[in-house]
Amino acid sequence: MTDYRSRSLWLDGVPGDLAPRPGLPGPVDVDVAVVGAGLTGLWTAYYLKKADPHLRIAVLEREIAGFGASGRNGGWCSSFFAGSRERTAKWHGRAAAIAMQRAMFDTVDEVGGAVDAEGIDARFHKGGAFVQASTAPQLLRAQEEIEYERSWGFGEEDYRLLGAEEARSRIAATGSLGASFTPHSACVDPARLARGLADVVEKLGVPIYERTPALRLAAGRVDTPAGAVTAEVVVRATEGYTAELPGFERALLPLYSLMIATEPLPAPVWDAIGWREHETFNDERFLIIYAMRTDDDRLAIGGRGAPYHWGSRVSDDFVREPRAFEALTGVVRQLFPQMGDVKATHTWGGPIAIPRDWYSSVGFDRASGRAWAGGYVGDGVSTTNLAGRTLRDLILGHQTEITALPWVNHRSPLWEPEPLRWLAVNAAMKAMASADSYEERTGRPSRRATMVKRLIGA
Q: What is the model's pTM?
């Protein structure tokens, strides 16, 4: 049997049995077939069934609920949205871009409210998002980001710049010159959220067929080894595994993100560091890191940097990157020397999904019955919830404020064929790493990172 607990700190700590639910027993006809029992698929099933208890819904999952990014991510339920405001304003107008961001603010609270209402022990803490600046170029970027938010009409209540003293009083990381902060973010145990939500969905009367891979998606039909699932609506909620589906090989690029978790740290260490509000933490470096303090007083930290694999291949073998894990351990020791010679008890990773224009989307084509959501670029814990509510309204034919948001029915272009995407993506990651090194070495802003972002459409 697959050792699902080894896939992440979060899955290792989920209470109860991780044995797979029964698979699809044979061909079945339903109103809505949801492919993928991650957060996108589960939120969609949840909101649809709550809105219309008579709907016949089935969720199909290749492994177990929460197996993919939903059970392995950094635990950030943030208001960050993967999509350029400038592009949004160009395509849909300035008001639409602002509405999209406001919807993400509201979504953080919606997740917290749903967790409370359903009694899910997801360890949800709304402590805000803290983005540290450790060098002069990073501080300049933080200042520019606050000015940018002001230009969109967001005030101190949404985004503000913390001076060095206030930043260190919150989280005493090495070399802090200041930080940007937004209260619109929470941390969560993502596997407890996904597994708890799966239990709720089942109790509502929605079967989740695990160890049931989708072999092919078509209008009104999902083929599986146990037979076809026919449905008026087929929802694709496969995120980082989408490229494995026939016909979707270039739709979303799977890029691996890796994490480590330290052993639980004693109270005096946390007293020295702070981090009392469970803020989500990252900094202004180009090659992204992300971290949180867990409920059992570990530091869980992740980052980009693992290579993209030829042909958008996905495999759990790709998370075995000792150098990347050593680099993350080094980041911990650099930022938080108060932790001493801290040891990592868990190492893991998994693919996130990146659309070619780095713009998340949700949509429904009523003529074909095809629906989808994804391309979250690592910001999916919250965005999946907005996707589930949006798909509910689209499928039920309700015109609401969220169905009018600019990401609805957005179509991203396909990624280039190989070898172009392999060369471009891996070169871009190396350029980001070198840009960070340049700024640390010289104290001057790097222009190469901005050029690379424009080149790849980030």
A: 0.96
